[in-house]
């Protein structure tokens, strides 16, 4: 049975502040907010790196990532700019490498990872209050397994939920497909159930789901190659069936939307110099809007999520460095409007509407010439 299209029209839409322009050199934040607002989005996901970069502009000096007094001033200023543009701040993101640290294990900065994780949590709660948002996105940790005690993941997240509860805040826990301990939706859903708090739910993501269970940037085909193509299709469809029949709609806080390009050459299976594994590198630069040259089954994932009864936030989080991953020269207002058009088309396709091949319905974004003309 097809989804009721009228029921989908009420879905609120958000755009991640970090998702306009080249991933490695985004345009000024206020220009991005203007573009997001003019395209008709209701809210943004506020990216922590955008607080840091806007802080340099606002305060005239570089803001340290743990100077929470200054970060709160910047967050208040960003909230005021969003208010001017009638944009809400739906969520602060991305809070990473939080759960399950072993005692005395050191993080990438050479600090006690466990102590730092909870200090950051307290600081980010202050930033949330300043920004006027009630939701924190926590990505499943990609800390090396030898530094983790996985028996601590649930109690750590439970403690975080209790810290947030004091302020009326909640956790949106997301499976990052390059996570070392919870890369799939089933992994994070198991953890969320065990945490057993009313202020934790899921941040599902079309890229993280299909990018982990369907695709693989290290293979020639761009797909997982441990089974045949037919078996892969059947296995992935079973996973989506499990999702739609397993997760209660109220435990899904948002669905993030993006596609993925096939990489020009298969990525090395080894971590890069920063320790990031291939799916993490793929995520950083090769995530366009749907209908813009990607190859993931985005509509299938979105449809499965909608079949749970979920009608909450659809949020567009892309990192579009072009098919080569080296960057694009695009008009950010055109891109934001295309994202809104993508949303309209995606919902229609989820409801079973078919679109003729060759008609893009203003969902595609073309690069500008070098001179900007």
From TrEMBL:
TM segments?
Answer: none
Q: How is this protein named in the record?
A: Xylose isomerase-like protein
Question: Which keywords, in A-to-Z order, does the entry hold?
Answer: Isomerase
- Report if keyword Lipid biosynthesis is assigned: no
Domain Xylose isomerase-like TIM barrel as annotated: residue spans: 33-324
Per UniProt, what is one GO molecular function of this protein?
A: isomerase activity
Q: Does the keyword Isomerase apply?
A: yes
- Entries under SUPFAM superfamilies matching the protein: Xylose isomerase-like
Q: State the organism of origin.
A: Byssothecium circinans
Against InterPro entries, the record matches this protein to: IolE/XylAMocC-like, Xyl_isomerase-like_sf, Xyl_isomerase-like_TIM-brl
């Amino acid at each position: 049975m097809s989804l009721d299209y009228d029921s989908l029209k009420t879905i609120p839409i958000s755009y991640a502040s970090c998702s306009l322009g080249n991933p490695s050199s985004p345009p000024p934040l206020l220009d991005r907010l203007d573009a997001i607002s003019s395209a008709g989005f209701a809210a943004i996901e506020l990216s922590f790196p955008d607080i840091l970069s806007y802080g340099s502009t606002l305060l005239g000096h570089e803001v340290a990532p743990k100077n929470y007094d200054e970060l709160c001033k910047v967050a208040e200023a960003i909230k005021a700019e969003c208010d001017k543009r009638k944009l809400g701040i739906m969520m602060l993101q991305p809070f990473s490498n939080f759960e399950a640290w072993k005692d005395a294990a050191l993080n990438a900065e050479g600090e006690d990872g466990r102590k730092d994780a909870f200090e950051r949590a307290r600081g980010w709660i202050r930033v949330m209050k300043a920004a006027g948002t009630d939701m924190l996105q926590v990505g499943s940790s990609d800390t090396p397994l030898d530094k983790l005690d996985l028996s601590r993941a649930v109690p750590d997240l439970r403690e975080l939920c209790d810290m947030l509860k004091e302020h009326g805040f909640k956790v949106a826990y997301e499976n990052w497909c390059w996570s070392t301990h919870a890369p799939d939706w089933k992994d994070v859903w198991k953890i969320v159930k065990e945490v057993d708090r009313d202020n934790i739910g899921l941040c599902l993501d079309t890229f993280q789901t299909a990018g982990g269970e369907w695709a693989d940037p290290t293979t020639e085909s761009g797909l997982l190659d441990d089974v045949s193509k037919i078996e892969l299709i059947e296995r992935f469809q079973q996973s989506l069936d499990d999702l739609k029949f397993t997760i209660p709609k109220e435990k899904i806080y948002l669905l993030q939307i993006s596609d993925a390009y096939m990489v020009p050459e298969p990525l090395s299976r080894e971590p890069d110099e920063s320790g990031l594994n291939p799916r993490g590198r793929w995520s950083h630069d090769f995530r366009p809007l749907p209908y813009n040259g990607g190859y993931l089954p985005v509509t299938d994932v979105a449809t499965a999520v909608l079949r749970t009864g979920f009608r909450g936030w659809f949020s567009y989080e892309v990192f579009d460095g072009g098919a080569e991953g080296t960057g694009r020269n695009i008009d950010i207002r055109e891109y934001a409007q295309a994202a809104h058009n993508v949303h309209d088309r995606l919902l229609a396709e989820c409801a079973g509407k078919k679109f003729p091949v060759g008609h893009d319905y203003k969902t595609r974004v073309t690069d500008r010439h070098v001179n900007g003309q």
